[in-house]
Design a protein that fits this description.
- The structure is a single chain.
- The protein has about 180 residues and is mainly α.
- It has helices spanning about 10-25, 45-55, 60-70, 70-90, 95-125, 130-150, 155-180.
- About 80% of the residues lie in helices and about 0% in strands.
Amino acid sequence: WRFARWELHELILLDGGTYLLSVAIISLIRYIPGDYITKAAGSSIERIRNGFRYVRERPSLMVFGLASFMIFMVFLVFMQGVMAVYISNYLNYPFEEGAPVIAGFKALYSLGAIVTGYLGISLARAMANTNLISQVIGLLFLSALLFALLTISHSATVLFACGFHIGIAKSGARLHRNTYLVR
């Protein structure tokens, strides 16, 4: 695929348009406040101390929180530090031809994240009998397998397929991780 080069003002307009679209979609979501939430008493410093004390008393929660965050750190390093080198040196795309590959990966990653968002409720109901921690571990394991597959494949098609599935795994892990942490 070939796309004409966009001017900077067109990119900024597209970026701003996606924010407006997000605001429009989010404004359609009905908010129903829960009766079960109570605000902690005390100053901000006291509440921060209580939070640290809570986590210190539950070291497994701290380990889970940090370990389950690794998928986001690995993906950030991959996208910001490794992706361009991976495409030019490992997939052997010249620098000028690598941009569409990166864009395709990001588009498919985003599509995977969107699919997870739409299917999140259905998946949560279908997997209700399984432990949230097991689900997060499974998604982290899937992500590790996908990154391992990228190390042995020299195909842009595999990169695109992995991008879609990494989008699903990363978004699903975030969904389940945050659900577990706020329970």
